[in-house]
Amino acid sequence: MRSVLIELGPWSWAWLPVVWAAVAGFVLAWQRFESHSPEARRSGADWIGTAVVSLMVALLLMVLVNRFAPLSIKSYGVMMLLAFIAGTIWTAHSAREDDLTLSAITDIALLALIGGIVGARIAYVLLNLSSFASAREVLDLWSGGLSFYGGLGGALLAAYLYCRRGGHSFLKMVDQFTPGIALGYSFARIGCFLNGCCHGGPTELPWAVTFPPGGACIIPGAPVHPTQLYASALSLAIFAVLVYLRPRLSRSGHLFLSYTAMYALMRFAMEFTRAGVTARPLTDGFFMTEAQLASLILFVLAISTLLITRPRPVSSSSKP
């Protein structure tokens, strides 16, 4: 649809005050977000320090943009960033009800982001080796090509290592992030739609969409299912269910298991409308795709674990 969101540069130096103000606004918002007492008064030195740092960053941005102008900002990358921001903000907001500190939330979010990107890219490349002609293409993340299951595995590994080192409860931390994962996934699929990847197969339904040539779509110009938007809407619905379930599930890890089961069910169904490499059957004569098989296994494991570990009512002792 629109793989390149905007092109930046070259900028004249008359834009420096605007860039400076934008950077300063972001720095102030981040400092307020990180502060444990947002109402605390800032000293004059704080304001001067923020202004100086913001100016240095603005100057660096001006130099970089003008050096590489025109700089294409990809829709996919922007939506991935918004997905991370939305998920982290929700997690930090909901963490006020628990004893998890804001610094722990932000630290684990950044580590999980790195682990998730690495895991998602490795899984996607391994499943689509024939699509990559060079190592440079493997590293081209902004053009799309991430596996959710690989990303989830990488993020969980990073979270586990952080919790083990910091003495945090891994299951409690994962539950804390679970609604944010569903919310972020909804944004991420919009990025896929704008990029033209992860699209659906041909259809004659009235809400079919067409993608222009030159993008990630393998059947440009043909009306196809907007599978990315299906997944985005369903993920928002899952997010709402998770918010409802969160205060009602007492056992740590059960919220994440509930999300795993719901996502696996959604992904299994979405594969019937998908096109491309991921929509191909695992083997000849076998109707399920790789994603469907993985979803089925995860669904069974999640439901089984929920049933086995569910809280059981305490039986009242019999009277003598």
Q: Can you give keywords for this protein?
A:
320 residues, mainly alpha, two-stranded antiparallel sheet, 2 strands
Helix content: 55-70%
Oligomeric state of the chains in view: single chain
Mean pLDDT: 86
In DSSP terms (H or I, runs of 4 or more residues), the helix count works out at 10
Element-by-element helix/strand order: EHHEHHHHHHHH
By helix and strand content, what is the structural category? mainly alpha
Strand line-up of the largest beta sheet: 1-2
Low-confidence stretches: none
**N-C termini distance:** 74 Å
Number of strands: 2
- Number of separate domains: 2
Strand content: under 5%
Topology overview:
Blueprint: E1 4-8, H1 16-34, H2 44-68, E2 71-74, H3 75-94, H4 102-127, H5 135-138, H6 148-166, H7 170-195, H8 227-245, H9 254-270, H10 290-308
Helix pairs in contact: 1-2, 3-4, 3-7, 4-6, 7-8, 7-9, 8-9, 9-10
Provide structural commentary.
There is one protein chain. By secondary structure, this protein is mainly alpha-helical. The chain has two domains: 69 residues, no CATH class; 239 residues, no CATH class. 61% of the residues lie in helices and 3% in strands. It contains ten helices and two strands. The chain has a two-stranded antiparallel ribbon with strand order 1-2. Helix 3 runs antiparallel to helix 7 and helix 7 packs parallel to helix 9. The chain is globular, with a radius of gyration of 23 Å.
